[in-house]
Hints:
Blueprint (H helix, E strand, L loop, with lengths): L1 E3 L4 E3 L5 E4 L1 E2 L6 E6 L2 E2 L7 E4 L8 E9 L2 E4 L3 E5 L12 H13 L14 H13 L3
Parallel strand pairs: 2-10
Antiparallel strand pairs: 1-4, 3-7, 5-6, 5-8, 8-9, 8-10
Helix pairs in contact: 1-2
Amino acid sequence: xxxxxxxxxxxxxxxxxxxxxxxxxxxxxxxxxxxxxxxxxxxxxxxxxxxxxxxxxxxxxxxxxxxxxxxxxxxxxxxxxxxxxxxxxxxxxxxxxxxxxxxxxxxxxxxxxxxxxxxxxxxxxxxxxxxxxxxx
Length: 136
């Protein structure tokens, strides 16, 4: 039985997110995390940490816990990426806007919001759309 379900989370660029599950039952307990229904290779512990999150990491995460008696699937936890939260404080505000502008005018790869490999006006408009939508 699952005694602690994973909880939904959001994170900012290059931040980290951790999902955790606890289960009771006959040992040994085996864990397998999935993202959007597909197993994550090597994710076989009671917790799953995603370091340096990116937009591609968004999705639904759940864990299957198995033992000799059977299997149980956790409730899903949703991960949402918040690319405009450059300050990693859970809000999108003027501080994030000015941080983007500093990166943009410096030509920093951190301002490459369209992932084109160059920092140009397209990145400004992609950032602006994210900024105006805020964090999920």
